[in-house]
Amino acid sequence: MSPQNTFNDSQLRAIAHEDGPAIVVAGPGSGKTAVLVSRIRYLIKELHKNPSEIAVITFTKAAAEEMESRCRAIPGLESTTVTFGTFHSLFLAVIRMLKGKRLSAVPARTRSILADWEKRQIITDFLHVKAPEFMYDELIVSTYEDAVSRYRNTQKKSVPGSAPGADPPFFSDLIEWYELEKKKRGRIDFEDILSECEQLLTEDTRLLEDVQARFKYLMIDEFQDINAVQYRTICLIAGRYRNIFAVGDDDQAIYGFRGASPDFMIRFKEQFPDASSYFLDINYRSGAAIVEASQHLIKKNSSRIPKTIHTGRKEPGTIMYHVYRDPDAEAEQIVKAVRRLIQGGIPCGRIAVLGRTHLMVKPVLRRFQEHGIPCRSSRKAECRLNHFLIRDIEAYYRLTLDSMRRADFLLVMNRPFRNISPAAFPDETASWERLFQYYSANKEMTAIIREFYRNIQVLGRLPADTGITYIRNVIGYDEFLSRYAAKINGDLSEWREILDKAAADAERYPNVKDWLSNIDASRSEDGAEDKDKAEAVMVSTYHGVKGLEFHTVFLPSLNEGLVPDKKAVMMAEIEEERRLFYVAVTRAAECLHLSWTQERRGKQAAVSGFVEESVK
Questions:
Q1: Fewest C-beta in 10 Å: which of 215, 238, 383, 521?
Q2: What does pTM read for this prediction?
Q3: Where are the beta strands (DSSP E) in 144-269?
Q4: What letter does residue 587 receive in the DSSP assignment?
Q5: Is 70 exceeded by the pLDDT of residue 385?
Q6: Rounded CA gap, 193 and 200, in Å?
Q7: Burial of 559 (0-12, 13-18, 19+ CB in 10 A)
Q8: Cα(171)–Cα(462) distance, rounded to whole angstroms?
Q9: Over pLDDT 70: what percentage of the chain?
Q10: How high does pLDDT run on average in the chain?
Q11: For residue 96, what are the CA distances in angstroms to 89, 106, 207, 220, 564?
């Protein structure tokens, strides 16, 4: 089938763009991926461009692989030499081009890339020293991972105020620690790849000319998510031939916390005044009511490219508004509605429940699990057995066994707080003898460690279920949780529920070793099941479903202070929150459920202003 039979006029004009810069503003469900793939075909088949001189760049490996797969499915392009990749993979290829020519000119650190687990380990080690009570908290470690990446991209030392050590001196120490550890390991991270590629191209004219000749045609997907270093480097590469084809939607720019900015897309014509503009303004995904509501909402933003998106479907679509007493009532009704959809023939995989944060959808997730409704999450840590509570209980029990691992001591030595330093465990293996020796001159600490040791000895003689109660009530783990929940605004009742469930599970096993073995086996099964959960209800954050679509979408907890997030104060922050809500709304094809509650945690709650904006 020819493109003329499958694309609308706007899409065809974008596909047939030949040379020179172009900006393609592609609304939700407008077929931008099909346009990108068809333009590759057009350049090669119709304009006879050299496929080796075409680079298609996107932000994730999965997106690049999908684009490449769709391109190779086109007759005649099965063995195409077009380059598909992420910014990082392309920029690393540029660095290696120099490496192949003049090895001595390449920074030694570019020979080994810091793995994600190494980055996490560096941050965890820092917390061991500076804030040991948070060293194995996945949420807090992830918060600092994002903050470090944001700083490396923007030089802004900012972390959420709720995170421990959010003060500038603490974060400055973290950055210094991180850079020193990278240097010790002889590693670079992804941000180094970006900055060093820019530096090499800026300083080496011959290399820049080689790269420009190698990639004469640049096609960039999700252009609204580009950051300053990526943008400057792309402009360098495109500087000679100026064949840059940028595709994106400034209204879906939601990664400001990583240093991305829609301003580069909005001001594209300032850099390229002669750029052609194409608007993919027909949404083939959502019904008219959903598209109309999304347009009411997003047009409240002042910093955006002016445009109006229209539906390309005959079906009107449905939006339903619900108000409930509290989050529990809301979750219960959502579960009932989902069951009716499934009974009516809607596949589970075509249903989504989305929240601004994971905490907002946890009540629904718990009820799905209770009712046996298959569900999946964009967050790997949702598995109950991966919760930090279960990890802590496991660590306590492993201390009762023969294997004495440093990691287990580090995990629970200050839960509850005992003022034990990580420096007491210099090696991967640990022992009580070393710990007593380390504090031999400190009578107070010796007494604390003696009590810790006695508790572990008692724990080793108890059944698994009774032992969990002992850890909570005698050792003082519940008291630690109460203080910890107050510090990070955690859900203490949920944590207690998880521990209660763990104790009930443990009753079924004759000894601790069998219970621990079962947990390990169950985690392996959960990991295998996640790969086969396409036919399960999606329970996720707004960020986690970017690029996806569903028959029916539920957006619960639409209360002021939650949506938009209460920390969004500046106009730019509020506009990003509005774009994020816009992304969530436009995931729905047929039906959209918007709901809020009258009270939260015993206090009266108001509906989000974003809901009101969507109906005006």
A1: 521
A2: 0.77
A3: 217-220, 244-248
A4: T
A5: no
A6: 10
A7: buried
A8: 43
A9: 88
A10: 86
A11: 10, 8, 11, 21, 44
